[in-house]
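Cont'd.
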Amino acid sequence: MLMQGLAIEREVVIEAPVEVVWRTITEPDQLSQWFADRVELVVEPGAHGFMRFGDQGGPVVVETVDPPTRFSFRWNYPSGQEPVAGNSMLVEFTLTPEGPERTRLRVVESGHELRDWPDAEKRRYADEHEDGWGEYLDNLVELLAKRR
Amino acid sequence: MTAQIDDELWSAIADPSRRRVLDLLISNSEVSASWLAGRVPFSRQAVSKHLVVLERAGLITRSKQGREVLYQVQADRLDQATRAMAELAARWDRRLDAVKRLAEAAYANREDNNDRAQDRNT
């Protein structure tokens, strides 16, 4: 599992052309088959939509639409607010063709990143904490081991 | 049990400067705010604010030793946070697997259709 900072990164290799994968992840009737039970979403930058999972659900706002390689949206933000970096989670899909019939699909979910830190401080933190969450997990495992 | 990450817990650990304070508390139990302030690049006041948020999220507790207030991590709550992160990652794995199945099936079906169209044309 790769976690840097609080970003979750996962990927999968799909035996289909990039255009087919693009349609699977962006067309609402497809989205409802793998993502949410109900999807109301126009895949256009800035478009507001809604996703429902069982009895839970929430609004989403499309951020980047760059067919057939990049699609991102923000969700999990406080109701009544517009989602921006700092108050929401960003989900970014990146599609990379690896041949005429093969596509690598990568997803990164990150967010609630730091709002008011200067860039230099962010970089310093990133340098010092290169392993990010990994180090955090190691520390936790160590701590739990000590307690036993 | 499903690991749940509530907003309070999430925002408590999402801030890198707060994670830094938490990291220090993980490796050094029962330390004071001044001790922490000496090891981070931000002010004593900022450290105090972070400690309040971490305590509210249940990630740390305080105890009094003489005149000093000492802080320590709550391993259970921290464990809950890490399990929640793992659960989030597993959820994405399941979704990506589903995308793979759907896209590959859609592509295979189209190939069938093309084959049939070609059959009709020949």
